[in-house]
C-alpha cells in the first residue's frame, strides 16, 4: 500500500495530476450506420445536443445526426486522443482535416487558439460500429500557451509495442504512445508540447494483460506524478490493493516500481506520468491559462477572431465513407499511414 498514494472510483471523470488536466473516456456500442453514416436508430429520450447519459449503451454527445463533438474552440493546452476502436473525423479552423481510427493517436496543440471538430461517423453499414477512445488534456507551460496551433497523427503502424512473456506463458503488451519502456523509446509529440522536453518525463502507456499475467511496472523518473487507470477486465491487484470496475484508478508513488497481477480475464490499463508544471492554472471550459485575466482575454479574442474562423460548410462535417486514414495539414501537406511522418 505504501506504493499507492490513493485509489478509488472514477466518478464522472477520472482524477488527474499535473501536467495532465482532464481525461475523457468514451465507450459506445454504436449500431449499424445508414448511407449518411448516421445511426440506423436513435435511443428514445436522449437529450439532443447534450447526450451524455452514462447508463446508455451509446451516446450522441453534442452531435445531432452523427455522434461526436461539432466545432468548438480551445486555447492554452493540448489534446491527445487515443482511439482504441472506431473512427474519428477531424476538421479545424486552419483548414486541417483527417481521419484516424482503430489504434491511431492524434496529438493537437491548441496554443493561441483553434476551433476543431471531432465527429464519429458510423462507417459500417453491414455491422455494428463499436467505439472506444481516451482524450487526454495535457497542459502547456506559460511560455508555450500562445504558440501557433499544430497537430499531428501518430499512426498505429508506427507506435511501438513492447511484449514480455511470463513463465506461465501469459503475455503483457505495452504500447508506448510517448516516452520509453525498457529498450523502446518513442518521442513524437508536437514540437511545443510539455512532453517534447524529455526532462519533463512525460510517459503515456497502454497496457494489455492476459489472464493471470504479472508485470513489474518500473519508472525511470523520481519526480513524475503517476496515475494508473483500469478500464477493462474483471479485477487486478496492485501490490496488495485490488482494483475492480468500482475502483478504477490509482495514484502511484513517484519513483517506485509496482507489481501488477491480473485476474481471470484480459485487462487493459492506461498509465500517465509527467513532471508537474509548477505554474498557476485558470481553467474555464475550453480555455486553460495561468490567470483569470488571461481567460477573459481568451474569450474576447475568440469572439473577435473566432480563432481563424470556420472554413467548413457545417459545424460537424464528416469525410466520405470510403476515405481511408489520412491527415491534411494547414500547409496542404498530406500524410498517410506507413509514411515517416516524424
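-> sequence recovered:
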Amino acid at each position: 500500500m505504501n506504493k499507492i498514494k490513493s485509489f478509488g472510483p472514477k466518478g464522472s471523470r477520472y482524477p488527474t495530476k499535473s501536467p495532465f488536466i482532464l481525461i475523457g473516456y468514451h465507450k459506445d456500442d454504436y449500431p449499424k450506420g445508414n448511407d449518411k453514416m448516421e445511426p440506423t436508430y436513435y435511443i428514445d429520450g436522449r437529450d439532443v445536443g447534450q447526450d451524455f447519459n452514462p447508463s446508455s449503451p451509446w451516446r450522441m454527445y453534442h452531435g445531432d445526426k452523427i455522434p461526436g463533438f461539432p466545432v468548438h474552440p480551445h486555447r492554452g493546452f493540448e489534446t491527445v486522443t487515443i482511439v482504441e476502436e472506431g473512427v474519428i473525423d477531424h476538421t479545424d479552423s486552419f483548414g486541417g482535416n483527417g481521419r484516424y481510427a482503430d489504434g491511431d493517436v492524434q496529438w493537437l496543440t491548441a496554443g493561441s487558439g483553434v476551433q476543431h471538430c471531432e465527429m464519429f461517423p458510423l462507417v459500417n453499414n453491414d455491422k455494428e460500429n463499436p467505439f472506444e477512445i481516451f482524450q487526454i488534456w495535457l497542459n502547456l507551460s506559460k511560455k508555450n500557451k500562445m504558440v501557433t496551433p499544430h497537430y499531428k497523427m501518430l499512426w498505429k503502424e508506427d507506435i511501438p509495442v513492447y511484449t514480455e512473456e511470463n513463465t506461465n506463458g501469459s503475455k503483457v503488451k505495452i504500447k508506448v504512445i510517448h516516452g520509453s519502456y525498457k529498450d523502446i523509446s518513442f518521442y513524437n509529440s508536437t514540437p511545443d508540447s510539455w512532453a517534447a522536453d524529455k526532462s519533463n518525463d512525460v510517459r503515456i502507456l497502454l497496457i494489455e494483460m492476459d489472464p493471470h499475467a504479472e508485470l513489474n511496472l518500473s519508472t525511470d523518473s523520481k519526480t513524475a506524478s503517476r496515475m494508473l487507470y483500469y478500464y477493462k477486465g474483471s479485477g487486478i491487484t496492485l501490490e496488495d490493493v485490488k482494483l475492480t470496475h468500482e475502483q478504477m484508478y490509482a495514484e502511484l508513488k513517484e519513483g517506485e516500481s509496482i507489481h501488477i497481477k491480473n485476474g481471470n480475464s484480459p485487462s487493459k490499463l492506461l498509465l500517465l506520468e509527467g513532471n508537474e508544471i509548477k505554474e498557476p492554472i485558470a481553467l474555464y471550459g475550453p480555455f486553460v491559462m495561468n490567470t483569470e485575466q488571461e481567460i477573459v482575454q481568451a474569450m474576447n479574442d475568440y469572439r473577435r477572431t473566432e480563432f481563424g474562423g470556420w472554413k467548413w460548410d457545417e459545424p460537424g462535417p464528416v469525410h466520405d465513407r470510403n476515405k481511408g486514414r489520412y491527415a491534411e495539414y494547414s500547409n496542404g501537406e498530406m500524410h498517410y499511414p506507413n509514411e515517416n511522418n516524424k
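The chain has two domains: 1-15+160-279, 20-158+289-317.
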